[in-house]
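User: Some background: our group keeps a shared notebook of sequences we're curious about, and every so often someone picks one and asks for a predicted structure to add to the entry. Today it's my turn. The entry only has the sequence so far, pasted here. Could you supply the structure so I can complete it?
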Amino acid sequence: MQAFSLAQFVGAAARAAQLPPEEGPEVAFAGRSNVGKSSAINALAGRRRLAFTSKTPGRTQTINFYALGQGSLLVDLPGYGYARVSRELRSQWEALVGAYLRSRTTLAAVVIVMDARHPLTALDEQLLDWLGGRRVLVLLSKCDKLPRREQAAALKATRLRLATRAPEARVQLFSSITRHGVDEARALLETWLQGAEIKGPR
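Assistant: Of course. Here's the predicted structure to add to the notebook entry:
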């Protein structure tokens, strides 16, 4: 299964009522605004502009859905925190993402993209608590901006902090620039999609 190479945009939802029917397994990508989430998606798919990247925080304002073949979906969630948008619009985003994460029985896994230089912010920790035991992969993005010793230290520190909050979460270094960790993350996510049992939150 080479799902990510087959990714095709199929639609977007700005309101909970616009979410597509729950069918095959889904892997959702979440992360703080401007943390490199769209770049991570593009790297995993082997595309330059599958997910639109921008230096402007909050560019993604809808939940975007991409078909991966065999009925599975990649779901790009709006970034959280620090977006230069109105409080009203930010509240709408939070309500939309909350409705998706709480209700989606087809959600097989969530990828949380964090900046390797500033992992596990308060908002990241809130999201982990909110996920209620769902399968999680943490990508420590932009690791190419750190010396190798600091990369290892960031990875170790993040794993230690997650040991009590989300002990089953997988954590790895990731760079869309050098492609560090891209193949490893793709293989793991495709394995999870193949073996997904759709039961909702555990």
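Suggested note for the entry: The chain has one domain: 3-194. Residues 3-194 form a domain with the Rossmann fold fold (CATH 3.40.50.300).
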